[in-house]
Design goal:
The protein has about 260 residues and is α+β, with helices and mostly antiparallel strands. The protein folds into 2 domains: about 1-80 and about 245-264, Immunoglobulin-like; about 85-190 and about 200-240, C8orf32 fold (Roll). The protein has helices at about 110-120, 125-140, 155-160, 165-180, 240; strands at about 1-15, 15-25, 35-45, 45-55, 60-65, 70-80, 90, 140-145, 160-165, 185-190, 195-200, 200-210, 215, 230-235, 245-250, 255-264. The strands form 4 sheets. Strands 3-6-1-16-11 form a 5-stranded antiparallel sheet, with no helix packed on it. A hairpin with a 3-residue loop joins β12 (about 200-210) and β13 (about 215). The longest helix has 15 residues, at about 125-140. InterPro entries: Bac_transglu_N (IPR013589), Papain-like_cys_pep_sf (IPR038765), Transglutaminase-like (IPR002931). This is Transglutaminase family protein.
Length: about 260
């Protein structure tokens, strides 16, 4: 399937910024499930200082801004050919060793809720238990926008019983690591049914299964990602893979607007 994606992020300020530094992870790479046919990145109101590939293999750009601009806009987009591999991404690659993906983070630390969830899973092969985990996470955490934030941990989302795709992914990753399976968070895009305009990018998880390598699981939708998905960045949790992050100095008030379109 050939997908066309546009993604605009705009920050508006009511006063000049003393200084701001932003990190972008908005450029997808070729892989077993996708081939990037074209991709562009445009920046307004800021300057690119550095670009590099981080230890998770993510294309990373650093931007800085100071002084007069009251608006910073970042636009990316292009066309990606996607391939349905039944969620199988393949062998582990990159600078980060596989054992690193068993490490807990503040957002994925397992508590009583996650451990109880794992103990409730039926017996079976590792792959069967991961599919059961995906279904269980979707049932235990209802998709409800506005109930959680980017600081909500897996345990907190599980206790609330509600969240968004970021929370589903954190709970899945935390539980998989509790099972002894390396797991990682994935950010990217999903072509949704019935709509092309979206207010946020998507997130899911991948677990490393013996004999298959990395296998993707989208607990928010109850499926292994297919040709409707485009992978952009991975990490131990949301903070490692978030599309835009940064710091700013000064008293200016910030407003954020995000517009995404994903269409065939």
């Amino acid at each position: 399937m050939q997908l066309r994606i546009t993604h605009r992020t705009e920050y508006s300020y009511d006063a000049p910024l003393a200084y701001a530094l932003q990190r972008l992870r908005l450029v997808p790479a070729d892989g077993p499930t996708q081939t990037v046919k074209s991709w562009s990145l445009s920046i307004y109101g800021a300057g690119e200082e550095l670009r590099f590939q981080d230890h998770f293999g993510n294309d990373t750009r650093l931007l800085s801004v100071e002084g007069t601009p009251h608006t910073i806009a970042i636009e990316v987009g292009g066309e990606v050919d996607t391939h349905d591999k039944a969620g199988v991404v393949g062998p582990h690659r990159g600078f980060a060793p596989l054992w690193l993906f068993r490490r807990e983070t503040p957002l994925t630390t397992a508590g009583e809720g996650v451990r109880d969830l794992v103990s409730s899973l039926p017996d079976g092969s590792e792959l069967d238990r991961l599919h059961a985990l995906m279904t269980t996470v979707g049932a235990r955490v209802r998709y409800t926008s506005g109930t959680t934030s980017t600081e909500t941990s897996a345990e907190e989302a599980l206790k609330l019983g509600a969240g968004v795709c970021q929370d589903h992914s954190h709970v899945f990753v935390s539980a998989a690591r509790t099972m002894g399976v390396p797991a990682r968070y994935v950010s990217g895009y999903l072509m949704m049914d019935g709509t092309t305009v979206q207010a946020a990018s998507h997130a899911w998880a991948e677990a490393h299964v013996q004999g298959l390598g990395w296998v993707a699981f989208d607990a928010a939708n109850g499926i292994s990602p297919d040709e409707r998905y485009v992978r952009v960045a991975t990490g131990l949790d949301y903070r490692d893979a978030m599309p835009v992050s940064g710091i700013r100095l000064g008293q200016a008030q910030e407003q954020l607007a995000v517009t995404i379109t994903v269409e065939q």
